[in-house]
Amino acid sequence: MKFAYQNPTQIFFGQGQISSITQAIDTTKKVLVIYGGGSIKKNGVYEQVQQALQGHQWVEFSGVEANPTKETMDKAVAIIKEQGVDFILAVGGGSVIDGAKYAAAAAHYDGDGWDILTGKYQPQVATPLGVILTLPATGSESNANSVITKAETQQKMAFAAACVKPEFAVMDPDVMKTLPEKQLVNGIVDAWVHVCEQYITKNAGALVQDGYAETLLRSLKALGDSYAERDNDLWRANLMWTANQALNGLISVGVEQDWATHMIGHELTALWHVDHARSLAIVQPSLLRNQIEFKRAKLEQMGRNVFGLEAGDDLAERTIDAIEAFYNQLDVATKLTEHGDDKQNAIDLVVERLENHGMTALTENQSVTPVEVRQILENAVA
Ligand code: NZQ
Ligand code: ZN
Question: Is the CB of 69 under 6 A from ligand 1?
Fold first, then answer.
C-alpha cells in the first residue's frame, strides 16, 4: 500500500445548510452561479441561494443539460473570462457540477477546452468552486472528476484534476424531495457501481478499504430494500452520505481499480442517451461474468460480507446473480434496448468508439480488450 490522500472539500451536511454559503464564499468574490434545466426554481433551492448570496456580487448561467456538453459549457467559460468571475457555485447534480469543473479549468486555458478531455492540456489551475448538491449519485461534489460530452462528435470523456476539487459541498437531504423516482434509483445504482469498481478487483488484503467498501454496499442494499419507506429524512440523509463516500477518493487509495463498466457505459450514453446509472446496470453483470476468473476471490468476499450468501463452489456466480437481482428489484433493466433492432451494428459501434478512445485494455488486469467487449455486449444488448 502506497498513496497520497487529500480531500480538501468542506462538507456542510444536513437540513438548512444552504445558508452556510453566506460565510463559505468570501464577499469580495464575484460569483457565477451555474445550474441546470430549472429544477432548482421549482423546489425552493434557487430562492435559498438568492437569500444566502444577498451580500455577494453574483451572476448566473443556466441550461446545463444532463450529460453536460462542451458546447454549452464553453458559453460559461466566456462569461467567466469576460466578467472577471472569481468563484463558481454549482447548484445541481453530477452534470451541473461536472460542467462547472470543466468551465473552471477551461477558463484558465487559451486553447480549446476539449484539450482537457483528450489529455492534450492538463489543468493545474482553475477558478475555485463550491457546490450545492441536489442529486446524490456521482460523488462529483467532493472529487476531482468530470465527465463531458462533445455534442458535435457524440464523444463522452472524463478528466480528473486536483484543481477542480470543490472547496465546499452543501448536502441538504431536503432537496431530494423533488427528485423524480428514476433519478433516486439512479443514485443508488451509480453509487453501488462506484464502490464495485474500486472493490471487485484484485484481492489486496486492504482491510480498511475493503471493510468500508462493504459497509457502503450494505448501506445501499439496505436503502434499496427499504425503498418503499424512502419518503423520510433519515433514508434521504443515508443515501446522500453513502453516495458521497462511494466516490470521494477514500476507498480507492492503495488498491487497484477497474472502471471498465463506466467506460463502456459512457459509450451507451453518448450513443443512445441511456441514463448514466442505467448504462452501468446494463454492462456490469455481463462484464463480471466475463471476467469472473480474475475476480472470483473478491466476488466471493462480497457474497459473504454484503449479501450474506452461503459458501460453495459457485459463490462468485451467485454473487453476480444477486447484484443483477438487486438492479431488477429497483426496476432497473440489465439489458440494452435503446439501440433499436440492429444488435450487431450496435455492438460494432460501441467497440469502434472504445477503440477510437484508446480503451482497448480495460479493468485492473487490462484484460477487457475489444474481443471481450464484444462478448460482454453479446449478453448485455437485447
Ligand atoms: O437540470 P435540472 O433541472 O437540475 O434537472 C436534473 C436533471 O434533469 C434533475 N434534478 C437534479 N436534482 C433535482 C432534479 N430534479 C428534481 N429535483 C432535484 N433535486 O435530474 C436530472 C439528472 O441530473 P444529472 O445531474 O444529469 O444526474 P447525475 O447526478 O446522475 O449526473 C450524471 C452525470 O454525472 C456523470 C455522468 O456521466 C453524467 O454525465 N458522472 C460523474 C462522475 C464524477 N464527476 O465523479 C462519476 C460518475 O460515474 C458519472 O460518470
Ligand atoms: Zn458513475
Answer: no
**Domains of the chain (ranges, CATH numbers):** 10-175 (3.40.50.1970), 181-380 (1.20.1090.10)
The x, y and z cell numbers of residue 159, run together, are 478528466
Q: How far apart are CA 365 and CA 182, in angstroms?
A: 33
Residues 190-241 have pLDDT tens digits of 999 999 999 999 999 999 999 999 999 999 999 999 999 999 999 999 999 9
Helix, strand, coil % in the chain, rounded to nearest 5: 50, 10, 35
Distance CA 72, CA 68 (A): 7
Which atom of ligand 1 is least distant from the CA of 193?
Answer: 48
CA 186 – CA 166 distance, rounded (Å): 23
Cα 194 from Cα 247, distance rounded (Å): 6
Average model confidence (pLDDT) across the chain? 98
Q: Which of 95, 142, 159 to mutate to test the pocket of ligand 1 (most atoms within 8 A of CB)?
A: 95
Report whether residue 193 contacts ligand 1, using a CB cutoff of 6 Å. no
Position 179 confidence tier, pLDDT thresholds 50, 70, 90: very high
Q: What is the pLDDT of residue 16?
A: 97
Contact predicate 241/13, CB 8 Å = yes
Give the pLDDT confidence score for residue 321 in this predicted structure: 98
Contact 64, 34 (CB under 8 A): yes
Q: How far is the centre of ligand 1, averaged over its atoms, from the C-alpha of 39 (Å)?
A: 11
